[in-house]
TrEMBL record:
The family this protein is said to belong to: Belongs to the BLOC1S1 family.
Taxonomic classification: Eukaryota, Metazoa, Chordata, Craniata, Vertebrata
Reaction(s) this enzyme catalyzes, per UniProt: L-lysyl-[protein] + acetyl-CoA = N(6)-acetyl-L-lysyl-[protein] + CoA + H(+)
Protein name: Biogenesis of lysosome-related organelles complex 1 subunit 1
Entry GO terms, CC: BLOC-1 complex
Family annotation (InterPro entries): BLOC1S1
Any Gene Ontology biological process: surfactant homeostasis
Amino acid sequence: MLSRLLKEHQAKQNERKELQERRRRDAIAAATCLTEALVDHLNVGVAQAYVNQRKLDHEVKTLQVQASQFAKQTAQWISMVEGFNQALKEIGDVENWARSIEMDMRTIATALEYVHKGHLQAASS
C-alpha cells in the first residue's frame, strides 16, 4: 500500500512536472510570437518612416532645383523689365528732342517769313 501510494504520488508529480513543462514551453512560444509581432509592427513603422524620409529628401532636392530655376528666370525678367524701362526713357528723350527740333524749326520758319516779308516790303518801296 505504501509503495502504491508512493508510485501514485510520483506519477502525479511527473504529470505536474510535464504539465508545468508544457505550460512553460507554451508560455515561451507565446512570448516569442508576441515579441516577433511587436518587432514586426515596429519594423513596419520604421520602414514607413524611412520611405517617407526618402520621399521628403527627393522633394527637397526637386524644390531646390525649381527654386534655383525660378530665381534665374526672375533675374531674366528683371533684366527685361529694366531694358524696357530704359527703352521707354530713350523714347521719351527722342520725343523731347523731336519737340525741341520742331520748336527750333518753327522759330526759323517764322524768322524766315519775317525776313522775306521785310524784303518784299523794302523792294516794293
